[in-house]
Amino acid sequence: PDAPLAGKLDVALGSDAYRKLHAVIGGRSDSSGALAEVFHYGADGFKDLNSGQDTGFEKTDAMVKLDTYLGDKQQHHLEFKAKYSDETSNETYLGLVDADYAADAYQRYSASQLDVMNTEHTHVSLHYDYIISPKSDVSIIAYNNDFARNWYKTSKVGGLSLGSGAEEIAAQIDNGTYSDTALPEVQIKANNRSYTSQGIQGELAYRTGEHDIRFGLRLHEDDMDRYQWVDKYDLGTDQTLALTSAGIPGTDSNRIDSASATSLFIHDTWELANLTLKGGLRYEDVELTRHDWGTADPQRAEVPAFRSNSVAALLPALGMTYQFNDDWVVLAGVQRSFAP
After folding, report:
1. CA 281, CA 268: separation in Å to the nearest integer?
2. Virtual CA dihedral for 45, 46, 49, 55, nearest 10 degrees?
3. Distances in Å between the alpha carbon of 281 and those of 271, 318, 321?
4. C-alpha pair distances (Å), 285 with each of 140, 218, 282, 290, 318
5. Cβ atoms of residues 4 and 26 within 8 Å
6. Contact between residue 243 and residue 233 where contact means Cβ atoms under 8 Å apart
7. Helix (H, G, I), strand (E, B), or coil: what is residue 56?
8. Cα–Cα distance, 236 to 244 (Å, whole number)
9. 182 contacts: CB under 8 Å, gap ≥ 6
């Protein structure tokens, strides 16, 4: 907000217990500003479980942003941002057999009654700008992200995988046509993973005549920690799940994948009347590693198996737009892409 202090509150309600709350407050003085924002929404879901659980979701985001200009001519600008979000979604991969889908596409089998995705995310960043002159400036940003999620979801029913017979057994239980004397086992996998990414990026911009030239450097690190397990349940003819074997965390997947990357780039935007040309060159150098303790070492007590790899790429790009008139623009481009 540009006012000394301003805000808004937005509340909404809807079907399936839908709710939304959005609150914002902030303001600024001659040289500084602050903003706080909260967004929450959710619903009970529009699908139906015979066992009665919700099939909806709930999500909350909160963010704070602070900025200030420093120096006699306000040549320096600092911006701090912090963000938090979490989510609970009662969603599944387990589908329906054709006949049940035709009868009611919004039903779900009881074998999926415990399926849920839980996530949590935090972000912190600090952005610094230095206006050297009307023609040039420097921008630097440092950032850190942490994200954790566990999708606890049905992976097998009666020893059969999803799409390969699991739905048929789940349907028989719910439809009362299951005839085997032994209760079918439901395996629910905890796809538990956490991710981090952090780095610093700097950019120098220089403008002269028709050119806007930018040089950049980024140092980046990220990793993924997979620490998964499988719980086993009996699915009764009363459509309830009874735990028979609690899995040990780390006995399904147990490894950390990491990457360290250095990126360099140069980019130019060239304005020639109605023609705009954009060209750039980027260099990527990535070091990849994996530490794998395997399913037999959930405590990570032993030395893990180790793998590493490195990859580098030079990535050119060229694009153009031509403005014929107020209604017509021609654009074209060619670039080399990179997926390490």
Report:
1. 9
2. -20
3. 18, 9, 19
4. 20, 11, 10, 17, 21
5. no
6. yes
7. coil
8. 12
9. none
pLDDT at 1: 57
Q: Are the beta carbons of 330 and 324 closer than 8 angstroms? A: yes
* Structure-token match 């074209």, residue found: 332
Interval 249-273: pLDDT, tens = 999 999 999 999 999 999 999 999 9
Neighbours of 252 (CB within 10 A): 20
> 135 near 128, Cβ under 8 Å?
no
Asked if 244 contacts 226 with a C-beta cutoff of 8 angstroms, the reply is no
The total of other beta-carbon atoms located within 10 Å of residue 228's CB is 20
Distance CA 335, CA 340 (A): 16
Is the four-CA dihedral 118, 145, 249, 257 of positive or negative sign?
Answer: positive
| 215 membership: H or E segment, kind and range | strand 211-235
Segment 6-55, tens digit of pLDDT: 999 999 999 999 999 999 999 999 889 999 999 999 999 999 998 788 89
* Residues belonging to the chain: 340
Query: Do residues 222 and 198 lie in contact, with contact meaning Cβ atoms separated by under 8 Å?
Result: yes
- CA nearest to 170, candidates 92, 267, 68, 263: 92
Cβ-based neighbours of 246, under 8 Å, separated by 6 or more: 231
The pair of three-digit structure tokens given for residue 90, joined into one six-digit string: 């009662």
**CA-CA-CA-CA torsion sign (167, 168, 174, 180):** negative
> Which DSSP string corresponds to 100-156?
HHHH-TTEE-GGGTT-EEEEEEEEEEEEEEEEEETTEEEEEEEEEEEEEEEEEEEEE
Query: What is the β-pairing status of strands 18-28 and 32-43?
Result: antiparallel
List all residues 6 or more positions away from 319 whose beta carbon is below 8 Å from its beta carbon. 277, 278, 279, 331, 332, 333, 334, 335
Q: State the residue for tokens 């400036």.
A: 137
